[in-house]
């Protein structure tokens, strides 16, 4: 008998009580406190020499955050002030709950573009989306659903990022040349641009193109071999603020008789945003009728799924890029991001997430802890309190140039090259994601990309790795099926058809008929009921072809599934140290060698 005979008939179920008890005990430990409140881990270790670096990094990021926030407010079709309202609270919350020192949480181009279709001229929808997205993300984090991000492959995320960059940059082309436009789709923006190219404003076009060139050149200042490198570095990092300052000065100095030389972003509501709950009812801007909470939720619809998903995806991707060898706790990052959105919604914010551009600036500025986010938040608050009248002179062409310049470097050119060189088949989900996002919508394009990539996994699981070969042993025609890797229900039918077809073809060729099929399965960790039933059916089909079937050296968990289903099938499992030993057992009808507990790590 098998040394592990009892294990074949006893399924090992998880000990729920022990697992719950262990989880409860771990929740009461200091380790859990450090995990769910990371500030308790790094703050006691804070050194005074970190403060100067955090202040410089926070200031540098703040100089970028202010113009970007105003620009992203425009991308979302919101008043510019709402971009600023979204740019400060995330930094304060992330200090307490965030795990990556470099991340800056605030409005981003992708989030602004995702929110735009739901705004419909009413900022209340953007604020409600911020609150509800925060609730969804927080719940996902508390349920440890960060693992879901593993199902989104790099080709899909790279394709989505590229499509978003193309769509966002295209949406700013009209503003770059001073053409008024309400179009926001990729094709519609280009169609509008060429149809109205005669309405191009010369001053705006010159300013926009010159600002774009200036931003691209200033990005390279940090690499200049002359002068003080640290000075060039910080000028390069503050390039957006420099571009805005130049645009404001030109707009103010070239003003004639109260007429501005450029189209401007318009007045920004002065003062700090009021602290108030997110709107759960609003007034319809078209009809003037009141819309209740149910109506607002119905209006945002799929945004309640796509915006939290993309917010999490963008933030965790940024965290992984700057984690520097540390393991990213995706669930804790989701909690930090969710709470940031919830609290930001009380200050009239649109949905926010981790910003790659500002995080890169934060990292390059030498930030040491998440405390730099407080400095950035303070700068945004000071801007709202004292500088809103000045920012009313920001030309739209300048903001368009800032956004387009950022999009140039949002595309992951190096990753695209790596995908091409590594495995060209992975370019298919990349291209499918890009094309569907650009020519359909970002949210549906992302779903199509994920589903298309999942089809590869399904196809692979439908065709398990196994070799079929026929050999003779002491005059017996034996077909050996060597299974590799896992076998699940999707592959069960394919496995059965392949073996039956192989035996049938061999028998029809004439000569010695196949009388034995050996399925080698020491690498199979486990199987499911569908596979077990198909193997039982396979044995019956082979018996009609006067062919026997045995399973050789299967692991105990995999063999146990079949034995528990039907104890009579225990006889088809054989264990031996070598194939000749197995054939000797079959030839002389000797009892099988005592069961070898197959190591699953083989």
Give a concise summary.
This protein is α/β, with parallel strands linked by helices. The protein has helices at 5-9, 16-27, 30-36, 39-42, 48-75, 80-85, 89-97, 109-119, 123-142, 154-171, 173-176, 186-195, 202-218, 229-237, 239-253, 293-300, 303-321, 330-345, 356-364, 372-386, 388-391, 396-408, 413-422, 427-439, 442-462, 489-508, 529-544, 556-565, 579-588; strands spanning 105-106, 282-283, 290-291, 353-354, 465-473, 476-484, 514-520, 548-552, 573-574. The protein is elongated.
Tell me the radius of gyration: 31 Å
Shape: elongated
Instruction: Count the beta strands.
Output: 9
Oligomeric state of shown chains? single chain
What are the segments in which pLDDT stays under 50 over at least 5 consecutive residues?
Answer: 590-602
How many H/I helical runs? Answer: 29
Question: Could you estimate the helical fraction of the residues in percent?
Answer: 55-70%
* Percentage beta strand: 5-15%
Task: Kindly name the structural category.
Answer: alpha/beta
What is the terminal-to-terminal distance?
Answer: 23 Å
Mean pLDDT: 84
Spatial order of the strands in the main sheet? 5-6-7-8-9
Main sheet summary: 5 strands, mixed
Protein name: SLC26A/SulP transporter domain-containing protein
Transmembrane segments: 50-75, 82-104, 124-144, 151-169, 175-193, 234-254, 371-393, 399-416, 428-459
Keywords: Membrane, Transmembrane, Transmembrane helix
Membrane topology: Multi-pass membrane protein
